[in-house]
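question for whoever is on the cluster today: can someone run the full assembly for these? two chains, 534 residues total. i dont have access anymore since they changed the login thing
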Amino acid sequence: MKRLFRDRIALSKPFVFALGLLPLALLAWDALSDQLGTDPVAQLEHRSGDWALRLLLATLAITPLRRLTGRPEFVRYRRMLGLFAFFYACVHLTVYLVIDLGGYWSQLLTEIAKRPYMTVGFSAWLILVALAATSTRGMMRRLGGRWQRLHRLVYVAGVLACLHFLWLVKADHREPLIYLAMLTTLLLARGRWPRGVAARKTAAETS
Amino acid sequence: MLIRKPNSVRPSEITPEAVYRGRREWLKALGLGTVSLAAGCDSHAAAETAAPEPIPGNALTIAVRGKYTVDGPLTRYKDATHYNNYYEFGVDKGQPAQTSGRFHPHPWKVEVAGHAEVTGQIPLEDLLKPHPLEERIYRMRCVEGWSMVLPWVGVPLGDVLKRFKPTAAAKYVAFTTVNRPSEMPGLNTRILDWPYREGLRIDEAMHPLALLAVGLYGHELPNQNGAPLRLVVPWKYGFKGIKSITKIEFVESEPKTTWNLAASEEYGFYSNVNPGVDHPRWSQKTERRIAGDGFNLFGNRVPTLPFNGYADQVASLYAGMDLHRNF
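^ ran it for u. tokens below:
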């Protein structure tokens, strides 16, 4: 094994990759076995959107997790998680465009321009396109210091994705607010940490 | 998708529930799942609207059928009864079917109050007794952007209201849903300002299309669909169809309605189906039709029609009104 994978993280990556495809597999299975209920199109949209948001939050959780555990190597999962978030955002958008809107594409541009929830959702997707396109090692090298500045847009994408969810529900805001609270926590966790936690972190790093 | 003249659609054009079910099973057996096969299937339909056999609840004796029909297939019974916006039983559309089992729709009384000569507590049986039950197939358009085609059983609302002899001061009719937190778990969350309230202008309430429904698919209403008595106003968004009605009051001024109280800029008092007036957050130009065999990959979206296709019958009620302001 040592020869194939240079360490445990490298070894675990194929499993994480397979895990990332699992929601899609379950969705496909449910669709083909008629388990999506009364409004399958809405289910396809909701479930792909949920996973895009969850994986985006997972991506954003890497930095706090590194600080909390004192294990910087977790960063090596980040690109894969981010690309999976982008992947599910693409599934989400594709379901909307091809299946839901099917035949009424002329409605699309006015929808994106006129509906705030569509505007923010589509903007979040555009950000993810830019981030995915510049996620390669080569692009990192080419962009140099600008790469990190560009990729800070992921915070904006997170906020826009939560707003997209919040603005489309009719009355029950509990679920999107939970996501928004998680996002806020993850963003705040990037700030300066109280001394106690920082000390523990340092201890963990040196041990 | 215009409403046809009475009987212009033969009953044979509507696929009965049993045939849908059979076809679904057959598709499943073939492993085709959700893929819709051919549009021409419907020509094999038999005569009855609803097969009583697989449907729970007491079958109703229906005196009038076929007066109001809709082109195209009905929504499947399972979909109509397991995809419900009835927040008193939970906000998730699958919840009402699961959590409404403890609700007791019998015995039932309706309080009639306000500007009318006859008022008081009326047992449901007495309320319905003089009226022959009618089956009417109506489109139902939800404000969220989906729609169904449902075979209601009920009596014209106006015929019932006239028996109470509303006075000249009765300009509006206000309806209230029953408030039973012990039987309706959703009432413990403050998503909406309970109890649920709705209202109609008196001329809307007297319009022959407005239906007081007691049944669906030839049987008594399931709890999750608003048992034992609900309103069906097919030219308005679905939330105007208040469920489990416990009070009918004749009032002089426009009554407060629940969704209007929750978000007045999004849900107006009239809430007539109108593709020309979008919800502030989403379009109302088209709708996803939930009917027939279900998942038809590209064929579920249809244009939304003014007054949900009932413009010929009801548009005159709003002559001279600015429907953008009175949405």
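summary bc i know u wont read the tokens: The interface with chain A takes residues 24, 27-28, 33-34, 78-79, 82-83, 87, 91, 93-94, 143-144, 146, 191-192, 262-263, 278, 281-283, 285-286, 288, 290, 294-295, 297-301 of chain B (CB under 8 Å). The longest helix of chain B spans residues 17-29.
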